[in-house]
Amino acid sequence: MGPKIPGGAPEPSTLDGNCNNAVLLNHGGVRWKNSFRQSPVLTAAPVRALIDEQISIKGSFLPPECPVTVCAQMHSDDGDLWEAFAHYNTNADGTVNLTKDHSVGGSYLGCEPMGLFWGLQPAPCAREGLRLRKKNVETPYVMLLSLLEGHVSPSERQSTELAAVITERWYMAPGVRRTEIRQDGVVGTLFLPPGPGPFPAMLDLWGMGGGLVEYRSALLASRGYASLSLAYIGHKDLPGSLTHINVGDSYFESAFHLLQDHRQVCADRVGIIGLSFGVYLTLRIATKTVVKPACLICVNGPVGSTVKFSDPDGRTEQFESDQKYWTYNDQGHVSFKDVSLPANLSAESKVKIEHLTCPLMYIVGEDDLSASSIESANLIEETLKAAGKSQLFTCLSYPGAGHLIEPPYTPNSRASLWSVKPQKLVTLWGGHPAPHAAAQEDAWKKILDFMERNLRRELLIKKNAGLKVPLCSCTI
Asked: Residue 89 has what pLDDT?
């Protein structure tokens, strides 16, 4: 059962006895001794925003210097309840402001304006191994923010709800267009910003979890970039088994050219972004094929693969063939970190990094438990330096961050369910909540800056020269 949406006056209750001013909540609102005042109010501004936008959360008309809890609850697209909460003490003027006040307990500590968002975790008694991922980008996450009396946890519903507000968190800005692609064998989803273009663009590649993951592409389009999220394994519309990569280099070339040739895309301003195994594919596409991307963004992934492209069509061995490199913790959770250790990769599987001709940003989570990202970044840097191409390489490295560095203000899963058949596996991703959240926020800003420099600069030059090159507005 989901969180109750407040729809009337608060229930009767007496605020915590530590308050300096005794307060009685009755059906008429909030009554102070010897005076009448407005009922407590919780505000969120803006109430409707993109997922990567900060919002301001404030409580007002509260007793001074009293304990309160601010709670966030929402359901995932699968119907699971996620929640976060933080304990605050109201200021002398009876307010609490998450932008500048410090949490003293709960899901996070200190001044964390967006802690209620990145601090979300599955509610107690939830299904095992959950990971929060948006499946339907055409709908928002709808979040209930509540202001509760005292220092409590969300499960302690006997605490009085003083005020509440609903917020919406979107991956798609108004006017962004979503189009399913099933063309020339390519399976993906294309997102276009509002307006006629032409737009710079990104080919978006995820990891071996497979399927078609759209939310990063939707957000990139909301920030003014055409984006094609591409499926290459584990999708019903792809050929062959769901557990094999049954497409080869020509498939990725076709996807890149499909994006490049779109009438609303600037053909020489197309980059590639990849996470995990998508990093290997990103590097492979840029150095092995006829494709010439304008820039690459790689997040925690390998420079080679133990999963061999074993024939010209791209059909591979089953992913489980590299099990000799799997390691397990005391709970039986599996880590794939050693699978991508450069020393465990055959020379022929490693990408020829020295052939790279475009700028590359590589993002490292130093607590990555799923890929040998530090070692991969070091190898890339050494190879480019030896080739006299150091200027192409930018590395961002984040202590305490795990494998899944995604758009900001979204919660990290340190471990999540990987598979049920043929065996139940929970895989380790790594990352600690606060440093991982800080890494996501900083990395996203620098990703957008990197794309601005390498994809949009030429369009801006054209615009400044008087040519008509519209840029989109991304306001929700």
From this structure: 98
**Catalytic position from the list 146, 159, 222, 276:** 276
Residue 149 CA, chain-centre distance (Å), reads: 32
311, pLDDT greater than 70: no
**Which of these, 447, 415, 407, 457, lies nearest to 432 by C-alpha position?**
415
pLDDT at 34: 39
Name the active-site residue from 159, 335, 368, 416: 368
pTM for this entry: 0.88
Q: Is 322 helix (H, G, I), strand (E, B) or coil?
A: helix
Distance between CA 473 and CA 174 in Å, rounded?
A: 9
* Chain CA centroid to CA 160, Å: 33
- Partners of 282 in beta bridges: none
pLDDT digits (tens, 9 = 90+) for 341-365: 999 998 989 999 999 999 999 999 9
Q: Is 276 part of the annotated catalytic residue set?
A: yes
* Residue 327: per-residue pLDDT: 95
For residue 417 the two structure tokens come to: 């369910």
For residue 74, which of 142, 135, 131, 161 has the smallest C-alpha distance? 142
pLDDT at 102: 98
Cα gap 336→378, rounded to integer Å: 19
Which residues have C-beta within 8 Å of that of residue 61, sequence separation ≥ 6? 30, 37, 38, 39, 40, 41, 94
Helices and strands (DSSP H and E) totals, the chain: 7, 26
Q: Which tens digit of pLDDT belongs to each residue from 441-463?
A: 999 999 999 999 999 875 565 55
Contacts of 447 (CB under 8 A, 6+ apart): 273, 297, 361, 363
322, 403, 413, 416: which is the annotated catalytic residue?
403
Q: From CA 160, how far away is CA 148, in angstroms rounded?
A: 6
Q: Where are the beta strands (DSSP E) in 90-140?
A: 96-97, 105-106, 121-122
* Cα–Cα distance measured from residue 11 to residue 162, given in angstroms and rounded to the nearest whole number: 9
- pLDDT 10s digits, 171-200: 999 999 999 999 999 999 999 999 999 999
